[in-house]
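It is worth pausing here to work through a concrete case rather than discussing structure prediction in the abstract. The textbook approach is simple: state the sequence, then state the predicted structure, then interpret. We follow exactly that order.
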Amino acid sequence: MKNRSVPTDSILPHLYYENMDDALAWLIKMFGFVEHFRFALPDGQLHGVMMHHGDAWIMLKNSGPTQTSPAKNGVNTQSLSVFLDDVEEHYRHAKSSGAQIVEELFNTEYGERQYSALDLEGHLWTFSKHIRDVSPDSWGAKIADPE
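Step two, the predicted structure:
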C-alpha cells in the first residue's frame, strides 16, 4: 500500500556506533535486521556493515573524530523510520526481547501504525506500517504551492 502522507523512496542512512559489533548483534536480535556485507580497514578493524530489513537498507559505521553516536554525544539529532509488513509482530518481538520502547504501538492521524524504540547507543528507530492512504491536507498539513 502507498500512503501519500508518508512516501518512501530510496535513501541510505549511515549510523555511527562506538561499538559496531555489539550494535550489529543487538539490531539483528531486537529488530530483525540482516547483515548483507561488512568491510574492514587495512589493519583489519571493522569499518562498516551494510544491513537491511526487507527493503530498508542501513550502513553501520565506526564512530570517529567527527562522527559519533547519541550515547557519546548525549543528544539525538535524527531518527529513522523503517516500514514493515507486520508492525504488530515486530513490536511484540522487540518489547519481549527487552528493547527500550519510547512510544507504544498506535495509529496516527496520517495513516500509519507505528511504535518507536531506542537502540543500545541511543539511536531512535520508528517502525511503521501504512494502514490507510491519507491525503496530507486532510489532517492539517499544507501542501506546498509548485513554483
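Step three, interpretation. The chain has one domain: 14-137. Helices lie at 20-31, 70-73, 87-96.
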